[in-house]
Amino acid sequence: MDWPRGLDGLSYGGDYNPEQWPEEVWDDDVLLMREAGVNLVTVGVFSWARLEPREGEYDFAWLDTVLDKLHAGGIRVNLATPTASPPPWFTLAHPDALNVRADGVRQVHGSRDTYDVCAPAYREASRRIAAALAERYAEHPALAMWHVHNEYGSTSYSEHAERAFRVWLEAKYGTLEALNAAWWGSFWSQHYGEWDQVLAPRATQYLANPAHELDFKRFTSDAMLEHYKEQRDLLREANPEVPITTNFVFGQWVPVDPWKWAPEVDLVAFDSYPSHPDERAEQQSALHADLSRSWAGGDWLLMEQAAATVHSKDGAVAKTPGRMARHSMVHISRGSKGAMFFQWRAGRGGAEQWHSALLPHAGKNTRMFREVTEFGNTLPGIAHTVGEPVDATVAVLWSPESWWATSGAHLPAPVDYLENVAQIHRVLRDRGVVADFASPEGDLSKYATVIAPTTYVLSKAAAENLRWFTAGGGRLVASYLTGAVDEHCQVWLDGYLGGLTDLFGVRVTEHLPQPAGERRALWNFGAAERFCELVELRGAQCVTQYATGDLVEGQPAVTVNPFGEGEAWYVSCKLADDAWDRLFEELELAGPGGPGLDVVDRGPWRFIVNHTDQEAQVGHIIVPAGSWAVDKKPQ
Ligand code: GLA
User: Fold this and answer.
1) Closest CA to 50 of 88, 23, 10
2) What is the rounded CA–CA span in Å between residue 531 and residue 358?
3) Most-buried pick from 29, 124, 202, 626 (CB within 10 A)?
4) Where does ligand 1 bind, in terms of residues with CB under 6 Å?
5) For the whole prediction, is pTM greater than 0.70?
6) Each residue of 261-293: b (16+ CB within 10 Å) or e?
7) What digits encode the pLDDT tens for the residues 16-50?
8) Which residues lie across from 43 on neighbouring strands?
């Protein structure tokens, strides 16, 4: 299916909230969108209260006018279902449909995202508004795609969730006996005698059962997916030609398994909000783009980013001139079919009144709008590159289950799984390597090298997949805690490593967490931080050893083992960036880019984004400081 419908080149635009403005502003919006090169806007994301002011009573007049005006102006519409923000009348009538936090507090409306995907009333109301929108707009000529909901993220520990969780568990395990065995129920008297005894893992006195928590996370992702699919199917039925999506992010805000979700959307859409204002923002943008492309298995769409600021936990930092375009190009070069933003016009009121926009509060005579317009009008010039595949021979394993399972408080030492994945990606990216991500159970056959950072949960199927990949000639690099537990969070006995001790040629015999800030030096390889393991050689060669540290001094730190046609490397500790860089040098992983310089080859084209304050030259292509270029790739 071609998407967004009616847009051949690159999409440019953002979330558009006309309902927050008087009608006379709408004509101005369309004129300014055209001036800026905007061709796609996302309408209606949080508009439920304006679309259905009372239960079953709809007001579509304003939306009719908006869509008609956009259509007349040649602007395509990504029309959202508004279910991420139920209106006050709904939550007051159905308080049981509000989400309950792990500590038992039921949230109330007043912000957004207060919903419980397992509450029957919410499900019904969601279907009703989606069906009403489908009926009215499925054939509207402006409709380019549907945007279901927004950033699925409200985990609920309610009675509704609990009931649905039991049904999900019964379907998964069949018998309580199997559940008790999988959850190691004999520990702390957690043996269940009836399905009704199983609760959602709410706040409890001390540590929770990790298998229980992991299953609840899997269940929550599946429950949200059911909610999405109900709406998708209604929209699809109304017009099978219109593509359907929802927007993902990286991290806790959207706790879903994208490998399971991606096949259910017609395009993967991603909201990219880097969380560091310095050069890490560029590294994070590249990470987000490569994740999205990998989930999609090809083209995807950057659905949101901030136009003028980078947000961090210390507040927002203004993007310097050109940075908005460079971030957009990082995404486009890595497979996004456009650059979309939150938001078109900055709001006067509401919680996000200070969030940046393509059209700032001060209007069109601003530096920001000039920059937005200049960039928007450049994009048609590179439309011919759309659809060319990004070639990658290196994949990083991305395991949502390992992320979820390592977020428990019971591990020997804290593990920041998302950071460990991001670390591998940024070190590769700074060495000029464009990497894909892959699922531990996914097809790895097209990669020469697969890196598995702290892939803590390793199912039997995933372990076999890695064995097959390596035996067939692949180079596998795994880091500490990989394969520590199976899919039920039960420890892999006799050497951990997912039972792959023969593959790695080592046994891990002990975990040696160390105090935060303490480092154990490695010969010629930097130092281990926070975590290392005692490793016994069983055929592997030692690449480097620990130079310091009780128990580990002189013991193997990094090893390599030939296996079949390939080889398996094991890194038994948490390495700092420079040590990974050293290892990747050894593995000869390098590309034409570098820190501050993104170089991505796609088919006949080479994209270069120069984030530095120096002119850059890559082959015959010269890119001014802080700028970007697309040119023919050298033969
Ligand atoms: C998210 C949401 C948007 C907006 C932005 C900016 O990505 O989808 O509605 O709130 O964040 O904060």
Assistant:
1) 88
2) 45
3) 29
4) 150-151, 271, 304, 342, 352, 355
5) yes
6) bbeebbbbbbbbbbebbeebbbbbbbbbbbbbb
7) 999 999 999 999 999 999 999 999 999 999 999 99
8) 16, 79
Do 147 and 46 form a contact (C-beta atoms < 8 A)? no
Contact 517, 528 (CB under 8 A): no
Token digits for 625? 């400081």
* Number of C-beta neighbours around residue 349 at 10 A: 7
Degrees (nearest 5) of the Cα angle 6, 12, 17?
Answer: 95
Select from 377, 366, 520, 534 the least CA-distant residue to 34.
377
Test site for ligand 1: of 111, 254, 342, 358, most ligand atoms within 8 A of the Cβ: 342
Return the number of other C-beta atoms located less than 10 Å from residue 326's C-beta: 21
Structure tokens of 484?
Answer: 């520590």
The residues annotated as belonging to the active site are 151, 304
Q: Is 397 helix (H, G, I), strand (E, B) or coil?
A: strand
Residue-wise pLDDT for 345-400, tens only, equals 999 999 999 999 999 999 999 999 999 999 999 999 999 999 999 989 999 999 99
Atom 9 (ligand 1): residue with closest C-alpha? 342
248 to 152, 296, 304, 418, 442: CA distances (angstroms): 8, 11, 10, 15, 20
Q: What are phi and psi of 100, to 5 degrees?
A: -110, 130
pLDDT digits (tens, 9 = 90+) for 302-320: 999 999 999 888 889 999 9
Segment 255-295, tens digit of pLDDT: 999 999 999 999 999 999 999 999 999 999 999 999 999 99
pLDDT tens sequence across 537-568: 999 999 999 999 889 999 999 999 999 999 99
Tokens of 368: 């920001």
The alpha carbon of 344 and the centre of ligand 1 are apart by a number of angstroms equal to 12
Amino acid identity at 273: Y
Q: Which amino acid is at 93?
A: A
Judge whether 15 and 343 are in contact, CB under 8 Å. Answer: yes
Of ligand 1's atoms, which has the minimum distance to the CA of residue 306?
Answer: 6
Tokens 């290196």 belong to residue = 394
With 0-12 CB in 10 A as exposed, 13-18 as middle and 19+ as buried, what is 542?
middle
Tell me the chain's radius of gyration from C-alpha atoms: 25
Confidence bin at 427 (pLDDT 50/70/90): very high
> Considering only CA atoms, which residue is closest to atom 11 of ligand 1?
342
**Residue 304 alpha carbon, nearest atom of ligand 1:** 7
Q: Please give the distance, rounded to the nearest whole angstrom, from the Cα atom of residue 16 to the centre of ligand 1.
A: 12
Quote the CA–CA distance of 165 and 172 in Å, as a whole number: 10
DSSP 38-51: --EEEE-TT-HHHH
Instruction: Tell me 105's DSSP state.
Output: P
- For CA atoms 623, 628, 629, 635, the dihedral sign is positive
* 554 vs 557: CA distance, rounded Å: 9
Residue 482 above 80 pLDDT?
A: yes
Name 606's bridge partners.
601, 631
pLDDT attached to residue 177: 98
